[in-house]
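Memo to structure team: turn this sequence into structure tokens by end of day. - J.P.
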Amino acid sequence: MSSSTPAAVAGYPSITVPSAYSFGLPLGVSFTGGQWSEPRLLALAYAFEQGTLVRVPPQFRPIVPSQTGPTGPTGTTKVPAPRTATTTR
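Reply from structure team:
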């Protein structure tokens, strides 16, 4: 069960922000509030991110070209279109 499940089941707003890294993987802290507290939670999450400066923007990795098989224009493997059933009379 994730940390947001109890809040979601109970109907409480919840937001998770990065708080640290362990072995290169992000760890988060969750803020959960009462009914109609979304603006306050967003403000707290934003203040936490700005105060800790833990968040690292995502880095987009280049697409790895296919080693075998048909390739598309960018060097990625093409996925064949799904076959549709046909009926004959």
